[in-house]
Amino acid sequence: MRRPLVTMLLTTTAALALVGCAGPGSGVYDGEQSASDVLPAQVTAEGHDYDPDSSRLLATHHGYQFFAVSSPRMGDCLLSFAPDAPETWVAGCTASGGRVGTSGQVGVKTDYAPDGLPEEEAPEGWTRLTPQLQVTED
């Protein structure tokens, strides 16, 4: 009788430990927001339902800036910003935690997965900037 009880306790403890490790979020929002994480002044959260306190600068590449930002309504979002054209920015969101891409007026295409892209190499012509983000020129 004692052995099944110990086995059940060990199994339950292991399952709870795994759930803790595999909890929601990809780590992009971990830590305190720094000055570089704050969305540029030209990007307003007003009307877009972004939580400005959640923004994190993921990467800078060829002058472009890429921010992760959460939205209570739209989920995890990627915002692509070109400081040379500050009024021109694009964002894509995924409420399901899946992948999202952006392209268009900024001049760069993105592929973003908040929980991480597959570990295989980036497709030809794409540059992997973080485990969650890869880009190519538009």
Order of strands in the sheet with most strands: 1-2-3-4
List the total number of helices. 1
Using only CA atoms, what is the Rg?
A: 19 Å
User: Largest sheet, if any?
Assistant: 4 strands, antiparallel
Ends apart, CA distance between termini:
66 Å
Category from helices, strands and their pairing: alpha+beta
Binned, the helix content reads 10-25%
**Percentage of residues in DSSP E strands:** 25-35%
Number of domains: 1
Give the assembly state of these chains.
single chain
Order of helices and strands: HEEEEEEEE
Question: In terms of per-residue confidence, which ranges show pLDDT below 50 for 5 or more consecutive residues?
Answer: 1-25
- Coarse morphology: globular
Strand segment count? 8
- Average pLDDT over all residues: 79
Describe the protein in words:
- The chain is of the alpha+beta class and 138 residues long.
- The protein has one domain (34-137).
- The chain is built from one helix and eight strands.
- It has one helix at 2-21, and strands spanning 56-61, 64-71, 75-81, 89-94, 100-102, 108-112, 127-130, 133-137.
- The N and C termini lie far apart (66 Å).
- The relative contact order is 0.14.
- The model is unreliable at 1-25 (pLDDT under 50).
Break the fold down into its secondary structure elements and pairings.
Elements: H1 2-21, E1 56-61, E2 64-71, E3 75-81, E4 89-94, E5 100-102, E6 108-112, E7 127-130, E8 133-137
Antiparallel strand pairs: 1-2, 2-3, 3-4, 5-6, 6-8, 7-8
